Amino acid sequence: MTVRIGINGFGRIGRSIMRIAAGAHGSGITVAAINDIASPDRLAYALKRDSLRGRFAGTVRTAGGRLVVDDRPLWTFQEAQPGRIPWSDADVDVVIEATGRFRSGEIARAHITHGGARKVVISASADDPDAFLVYGVNHDTYEPDRHDVISPASCGVNALSVMAKVLLDRFGLRSVQTSVVLAIQGWQRVHDATSGTSREDPRLGRATAESIIPHDHVAGDLLEVALPRLGEVRYSYYCVPTPIGSLAELGGQTDRPVTAEEVNRAMAEAAAGSMRGLIDYDPDPTVSIDVRDNPASCLFDPSGTQTTADGGVKVRGWFDNEWGFSHRLLDLARLVGEREPVPAGMLVKTAMA
Ligand SMILES: NC(=O)c1ccc[n+]([C@@H]2O[C@H](COP(=O)([O-])OP(=O)(O)OC[C@H]3O[C@@H](n4cnc5c(N)ncnc54)[C@H](O)[C@@H]3O)[C@@H](O)[C@H]2O)c1
């Protein structure tokens, strides 16, 4: 079965989804419709030429007010309010809410109640969704009858939680402390600004290219939601002026002392087995740009593993904050868009096919 997707907000995430769906990892997904406040011509231009990902591999044009991708016209709407988008005209199963404007579960639900879609996946941490589902970590808690508006938490939480799950399952893990170092986000400001970021922490209005910016607007507590067995988690977030490619570090206490070699072996085994497609493992020395276009939630970096004799452990992973996360959004869309959900183990394989 093909899940028909509607994308609200054709920005960095929306266009990543379009590129993935049009490429080799797009099986089981059809982008049926898009909505953005920008004109179809601007959307076509933005899809065709991307400063970070290069030219779109297929063809892009507009015709009759619609975006036409690889000679397939998409329903193209230009509405500013979720409740006004007629997704049912395009027979959309799942809306991916990727404007960054409508992160409240209640507002995003209008895609269902007014637009006629069946499910919504918000492309960020959200307020009061029906469920937070991190793919590969707790997506098997999805209940089709109760969960209509879903949040995958954040890209950072996805990267942290796949590593945390491996450590937890293999060695036990508690007293977890994490850091996420995040590449530039579209809502940041070029110069110091007092408004326009829609975030309350004043540091987030500071000039993007000038500083490492710590901030409190974090979704780190969602790590505890996705993996309640972890117990308390502490987290730090930093915005840095690199265009793409982010870092996740996670430390904690294992149930027994482990060596760095044991930890790395566990991650390598998970990358080849239970977490295939979600954790990638790369023994080569890595810097952030190396993760660009990587579809995994986390590219595990064994050179970052440190342990102490009393059971302390720290691990490092990289993630493409757009590309990896967009793959997870599509994994979730496949899961919730299926009219008859298939077993979780099958879904990981399908997603990576
Ligand atoms: N970019 C990342 O690395 C990343 C990673 C994870 C999560 N996210 C989250 O995904 C969301 C989108 O991020 P992005 O980077 O794609 O943002 P973006 O600014 O690149 O894209 C937002 C798009 O939404 C459109 N838009 C704005 N208001 C609208 C409205 N009222 N109705 C319809 N369209 C509207 C804009 O024209 C733009 O095309 C945010 O919540 C962000 O936090 C982003």
TrEMBL record:
<comment type="similarity">
    <text>Belongs to the glyceraldehyde-3-phosphate dehydrogenase family.</text>
</comment>
<keyword id="KW-0547">Nucleotide-binding</keyword>
<dbReference type="InterPro" id="IPR020828">
    <property type="entry name" value="GlycerAld_3-P_DH_NAD(P)-bd"/>
</dbReference>
<keyword id="KW-0560">Oxidoreductase</keyword>
<protein>
    <submittedName>
        <fullName>Glyceraldehyde 3-phosphate dehydrogenase</fullName>
    </submittedName>
</protein>
<dbReference type="Pfam" id="PF00044">
    <property type="entry name" value="Gp_dh_N"/>
</dbReference>
<dbReference type="GO" id="GO:0016620">
    <property type="term" value="F:oxidoreductase activity, acting on the aldehyde or oxo group of donors, NAD or NADP as acceptor"/>
</dbReference>
<dbReference type="InterPro" id="IPR020831">
    <property type="entry name" value="GlycerAld/Erythrose_P_DH"/>
</dbReference>
<keyword id="KW-0520">NAD</keyword>
<feature type="active site" description="Nucleophile">
    <location>
        <position position="155"/>
    </location>
</feature>
<dbReference type="Pfam" id="PF02800">
    <property type="entry name" value="Gp_dh_C"/>
</dbReference>
<dbReference type="GO" id="GO:0051287">
    <property type="term" value="F:NAD binding"/>
</dbReference>
<feature type="binding site">
    <location>
        <position position="321"/>
    </location>
    <ligand>
        <name>NAD(+)</name>
    </ligand>
</feature>
<feature type="binding site">
    <location>
        <begin position="12"/>
        <end position="13"/>
    </location>
    <ligand>
        <name>NAD(+)</name>
    </ligand>
</feature>
<feature type="binding site">
    <location>
        <position position="123"/>
    </location>
    <ligand>
        <name>NAD(+)</name>
    </ligand>
</feature>
<feature type="domain" description="Glyceraldehyde 3-phosphate dehydrogenase NAD(P) binding">
    <location>
        <begin position="3"/>
        <end position="155"/>
    </location>
</feature>
<dbReference type="InterPro" id="IPR036291">
    <property type="entry name" value="NAD(P)-bd_dom_sf"/>
</dbReference>
<dbReference type="InterPro" id="IPR020829">
    <property type="entry name" value="GlycerAld_3-P_DH_cat"/>
</dbReference>
<feature type="binding site">
    <location>
        <position position="36"/>
    </location>
    <ligand>
        <name>NAD(+)</name>
    </ligand>
</feature>
